[in-house]
Amino acid sequence: MARLLYTNKTTGHQYQACHGSLITKRYVLTSAWCALHETIKPDTVYLGEFDYSQDPDCNVNDASDCAPSFRSVDIESIIAHPQYDADADRHNVALLRLNHNVEFEDHIQPICLPVSQSLRQQRLQQLIVSGWGWLKSTKDTPKILQKAVVRVFNRTECKNKLHPRYYIEDGAICTGGGGTPNTCEWDLGTPLGYPSRYNEHVRFVQYGITSAIGCNFAPSINTFIPHYMDWILNNLRS
Predict the structure, then answer these.
(1) Where does residue 52 fall: left (phi above 0), alpha (psi -120 to 50 degrees), or beta otherwise?
(2) Which of 15, 24, 67, 86 is nearest to 46 (CA)?
(3) Angle at 21 between CA 153 and CA 201, to 5 degrees
(4) What b/e readout covers 128-164, taking b as 16+ CB neighbours within 10 angstroms?
(5) Residue 178 · residue 217 · CB < 8 Å
(6) For tag attachment on the chain, is the N or C end more exposed, with fewer CB atoms within 10 Å?
(7) Whole-angstrom Cα distance, residue 72 to residue 206?
(8) What is the dihedral of CA 191, 197, 201, 207, to 10 degrees?
(9) CA distances from 62 to 34, 70, 193, 202, 233 (A)
(10) How far apart are the first and last CA of the chain?
């Protein structure tokens, strides 16, 4: 998990507005909306956080049992999909190139992507999402990383529930809605994945990126990563 930090150029105040996922030592994957906001762009990534009210994260029952501190890494450049359409929420995917290689540690590891053809062809009925976005019940932003299992809509059902301006084709999937667990405010860019067989082992593989949130009853729209794997791989460099 990555927290994307934005700096108000007037006040100097830094705040979180989006999420991403670490995919290599040098790149974070997120939504294009998070990377190309009209007024401000992310400049820093926080990695290795769980409870951002404390640093380091320590066991509530044993103050000496702590994880390493989170790492702050500046963003060198942003690569967004060239056909990104904010109005239709189409091609909503971007890469953040960090200004130096990240050292993998116990609390900082890259997520797996659907690189093989078999993983790209997976059509799951549910996905696991995590993030620090709004809690639906209280409309509070939690300080501790949350996770939920969300159901995947078929595209026809999703189209019937959303405004026709939204792009719901091969590059998108819908999740949540109808009072079931769902992503909400401040969850944009967060990864959705599921355990899958990967090189003879079971790994947690990312299949989606939250790109438009639905909260309580409307489905959320997510960029479907298998559709964009060629674009992602073609835009990574050492």
Answers:
(1) alpha
(2) 15
(3) 80
(4) bbbbbbbebeeeeebeebeebebbbbeeeebbebbee
(5) yes
(6) C
(7) 23
(8) -10
(9) 37, 19, 32, 32, 43
(10) 21
Q: Would you state the structure tokens that stand for residue 102, as one six-digit string?
A: 């990240």
Extract the tokens encoding 170: 């091969």
Write out the two tokens for 121: 């062809």
* Token duo for residue 38: 């009209």
Look up residue 120 and give its two tokens. Answer: 């790209």
pLDDT tens track, the chain, 238 positions: 999 999 877 787 888 889 999 999 999 999 999 998 766 789 999 999 999 888 989 888 898 899 899 999 999 999 999 999 998 999 999 999 999 999 999 999 999 999 999 999 988 999 999 998 877 655 677 888 999 999 998 888 888 888 888 888 889 999 987 777 788 877 899 999 999 988 889 999 999 999 988 777 788 999 999 999 999 999 999 8
Task: Extract the tokens encoding 172.
Answer: 């998108």
